[in-house]
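Course assignment 3, question 2. Fill in each field.
Student: A.L.
Task: Predict the tertiary structure for the chain below.
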Amino acid sequence: MKKRTMLFNISILAVLILLLSACASATPIATEPSTTVSATATQTSTNSQTSTSQVSAAPTGGNPPSGALPNGSPPSGSPPSGNPPSGSSGSTSSNQGLSTATGAYTLDGQTASETDQTYTASEQDQSAVYVINGGNLTLDNVTINTSGNSSSNDNSSFYGLNAAVLATSGSTIKLADSSVSTTGSGANGVFATGEGSSVSLSNVTINATGGGGHGVMATQGGSMNLTNVDITTAGANSASIATDRGGGTITSSGGTVTSSGADSPCLYSTGRLVSTNLTCIATGSESVVIEGANSITLTVSSLTSSIEDKWGVMIYQSMSGDAQGTEGEFNMTGGSLTNSASSGPLFFVTNTTAYINLSAVRLSAGSGVLVQVAGTDRWGTSGSNGGTVNLTADKQTLTGNLVADSISNLTISLENGSTLEGTINAEHSAKSANITLDKTSSWTVTADSYITCLNDADGISGTTMTNIIGNGHTVYYNASACSALGGQTYTLVGGGYLKPAG
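Answer field:
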């Protein structure tokens, strides 16, 4: 009896083991789905900044791990809602403003190459192409379109949130023979942010129509290189080529940039911009703005602005924190610089020190004012927010007047056959105004002028100034601040005098 009972129990145990084995074999083995990118399909996946999607086929080879499955059932419930946290451990300032960023196509830390694709994004804070964490992407003959708005114009301008094409955290993008179009607010065209992040564009057309939609931008130490890139922007505060907080470097060769929105110059530098053979047309703003201790260098380029009550080039410090320092530098060799408006100077400087270096540039100021330096109510502390201009002309023709207010300074140096036709401080208002002429250069005076001092040793012959054409006007100087002239009165060519102010 006990033996039958034992055999019966063993039989029941065997049946239970068989049933459990059958259930285990029916349980599916979970595998992480791979990301596959079609060679022709439009990319529309909404990967977050920490996504690991790659431009490659699903991985092949390899078997699942051996061994029995663990006992028990998988946990129930749904994964938590919301996006994963942005950035990675040790994240830098370059992704501080990208916590809500996504990419219709995202490349994370990998290398990929794509041709003949279309990338489209329409959601808020969504880039069409987003490369992160040292990724390296090459795109050729692609079309990129976005229509979404930014949730933060500051994060768009400082970090590239919502840019159509965005390289960050040491990533590299090469884009050639392609087009980029954005329509949303805060939708920049192409953006590089963070040290080590770089973008190269060749034969690319960029069109950004929304407010705050710059054509290309580099910030936080990012860099860009442009070759034959044409850019059009239409919104307010939408410079065609720009850097912003943290600085950046953009180098360009060839191309035409056009901006029509309010406060939207062709070039806006809080970093370093270098352009050769660039054509710039600004109809709603200055053609060039430099903020803080930053620079723009132009060679054989053509820049035109035309809006009334603006300037051709503005150099200033806004005190907003977007740019550090107070020494802006504008360098131009060859080409032309025009402000055709009947009001507003060709150069305007306020709340900073400006170094303007010109060599063989064709200049045109519709207002007749070449340089104005003055404090304004908009920037800095009233009474101490004037400016200082240091203008060096090399093989340069200058036509127009130079003016300054009582808290501002002018220093002009004419070298290597340069000429000035106009007045210096005709209103006798400048804090100081100094001019230096070498023996090959000259000044043609068009109205009485007031200077602090003249350095022109080679132009003095007895009591005559040989390289100042007076046209019957008088140039007054401050004898106590100008020992070089010895307190004497000098005759000017064509009539007029250089003499101590009374």
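Instructor remarks: The first helix runs from residue 2 to 26. The chain is about 5% helix and 45% strand.
Grade: pending
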